[in-house]
Specification:
homotetramer, globular, 3-stranded antiparallel sheet, 11 helices, 56% helix, 5% strand, mainly alpha
Chain lengths: 259, 259, 259, 259
């Protein structure tokens, strides 16, 4: 467990090899998206994989009033270090906002059931029943903030169909939506998290890789918001309308009167 | 100071606008690199800008035994959350490792002197003299770890020449190297930080934007290392050969014997 | 959901109130431990609560070769910013290392079963059976790295007995250890995480509060290691014996030969 | 440079030594504040040092609408992980908010001039003149948000006088305030950052150690705000009144019409 090993990169004869390719053969020849695929997965992507990954990486560029970019703005207003802002922005993503890995993990376990011989609709019906039973929210569904549909999910579906990545997990995601509507009479949209979890899963990405791709997709917005705030020279951003609900002013009791 | 404003994105009629473009027009049509340029700078890049930015984004993909990927590995071995690993990996970049913004800031101030009428060699000579005088290290130069040249810098130069981004800051960087050699008889290479600072500066990126681009360039490696470590099931990575140099075992004195 | 409220602090008549107490009445009068208890819980601690919390806060001060301090050292060697090192050190704590909240959450749910009328040994026996059944590790037990006992856990137990905080969750933790030994014939120690989860739970702290207390307990070590590394002037800490297990050097294929 | 060494802690005979003291001798016997002093500085504090450090650690417990606690609230609303919130809250401290290390570094360099034989008022007069000349803000002075005085600074001064830590750096800080008023006719208060930088400096803490102490002082508030937000079940905190100032909706041009 304690030996350090890496199959990602190494130094060799005055260059760095990334998955076996010399860095000087990569720079100027691969796009960032191809290089990301290579570094994560170990092999170069085909053209269609690259188009699909580009679509995924463009799907959550920014949502200016959302947690991650606002966090980045506040951080630089107190601590004018761009790295601190990017790190904090990434930490402002998780189970409640931007987590394709949650849908991805569910779809992974359901895909296993498909391989065991069940049909897509059976698997989806069971999964919906299990979630309702356990009062567990189904990940990847639900109207995003104030929008009636999720155009990001729709375009991802379009590109997935076009590139041949509309496969089992994508169909399972749609079946989950359908079975949920049947079981509850509530029609939820598949949101961008759900669609990313499905499509990236069908491309062979694992749940942690999905989370990394989502973070990279958010970084342009996180960076742009932080840079804009630094340029504006903001100092110490506050929330002005913070309402206080604690006790009113009181005196510190003497030590022997505290218990 | 305290009103919240953003010129990066907004919500409009059931979609999200990134710098005015609907997200569904971006997904599937722009590459990540184009979308990053748009989000940071406000306008779409031309083809050459895109090639140059792709080269920059591919230039520091991974260096497996370096601070950022090792940090990511240690973090997930204790806290198996990919977001924590990415954030910590980003924090492991700065003044001593991966900071094109330092060369970029110096070149920005020197470019100002060019605009004031001095020649490139004069400005470079003065800058080297000032640094030597103040015993300040010149950023962007120096042999990277155990390598005699920096092939990443060389390829960036090649792409910059090809795309027309070999401009004033790039020439200043080379002049700094030359004048440093003349002044000290020490021949230092321009390293990847220096070349990124020069090229990105000549593309119009500010110092904080350079830092963000460098962080995004490192993320494939940070993510790949973290994912590999999670997959291996590492738990609690330690440094085995930590040598202790503190006091040997002693007794805690009674309170009244402490001062 | 979107109104901002706080019951922790507010500004009032040229001072700041912490849970109703003016900051100038706190400074110089309360210890940090008392102030921490007040800020987290809303009321001042009694003397015994304070002693118990001090013991908890002293229980994981440092483990120099462990994930958090090593992360802090690597981060400052690349990015000499103490805040970045502290943040990264905190991120290097979680499910696999330093997580009293995991034992705390389990004990919380088991304490609920006690309140429903079961005995401590019954609840513990069931919990062990459930964990073994689900092949789930029981949190808070197991030999810490290379140690045959956990003196930190032993001292916490001692202080808890002394201050009256050896209550239901503590007894449950011991019963889990006992029942695990009976079920598996394996004798595991209760480690510092388990004991913290039990004691802090019996003091009324919630699982997220336990995680915060553990992080505060680690910060002296994280800070001391980072400061020592900065003082030594380390630059770019590497892992020297990183073994490469990826593909050997190869050429990037032409674009049309990639799929 | 690359050997790992620590003088903070080590493992020895089934225990952990912190600066030579066995952890089981620390737990239950030292307060957290004593243990923090020991871990950072290598020796146990005297009673007065401990009182002074306690005062410092209580001085910036929370400011509920400020950057660090708001950051922590936003982060957990998206990513319900307390460690992520604590780390992000720490990153929301720096040059513009909570940075005793800036005043501390200035006072350190001025204290050097005292040792070279100048008087406190001369050194302060020169430092003010240099700052005004360079249009540089003097750290540690200035009215804190909406307050006419800084009661935290006043109480720190009181405790410092009481414990014998009102020494050269403290006197220098006051002289800076006085000389600034003389030079500019503007009366600025010494704020909590300035007083912390002075007092902690007179206690022998280095600038990075001051930053760590400030971060630890903020953590009760950061943690309490994060916990309150988690308990309230907040999801995806947004800034509702974010005003958009970017371009209005426009169409993505075809690739050949972009340059």
């Amino acid at each position: 467990m304690n030996e350090w090993t890496s199959s990602v990169s190494c130094q060799a004869e005055d260059t760095i090899l990334i998955r076996g390719y010399a860095i000087e053969d990569i720079i100027g020849r691969l796009s960032y998206t191809e290089a990301l695929f290579l570094t994560l997965r170990g092999e170069l992507p085909g053209e269609k994989e690259c188009r699909m990954l580009d679509a995924a990486l463009c799907s959550i560029l920014d949502y200016a009033k959302g947690p991650a970019p606002v966090t980045a703005r506040i951080v630089v207003s107190a601590n004018p270090q761009i790295g601190a802002a990017l790190a904090a922005g990434i930490l402002a993503q998780g189970a409640h906002a931007v987590s394709p890995q949650d849908a991805g993990s569910l779809l992974e376990s359901l895909a296993q059931r498909l391989r065991d011989g069940s049909s897509i609709s059976t698997v989806a019906r069971e999964a919906v029943a299990e979630a309702l039973d356990a009062k567990r929210r189904l990940p990847g569904m639900g109207h995003p903030s104030a929008m009636k549909a999720d155009p990001r999910a729709d375009m991802l579906r379009h590109v997935a169909t076009d590139t041949g990545y509309w496969k089992d997990r994508c169909r399972l995601m749609e079946a989950l939506q359908r079975e949920y509507a049947t079981a509850t009479s509530r029609q939820l949209v598949i949101n961008v998290d759900g669609m990313l979890g499905a499509v990236l899963g069908d491309m062979g990405f694992s749940a942690p890789e999905m989370a990394a791709i989502a973070a990279i997709s958010m970084l342009p917005g996180i960076a742009a918001n932080a840079v804009e705030e630094m340029r504006a020279g903001s100092r110490i951003r506050m929330v002005r309308d913070m309402e206080y609900r604690g006790p009113s002013r009181r005196k510190v009791p003497k030590k022997d009167q505290r218990d």
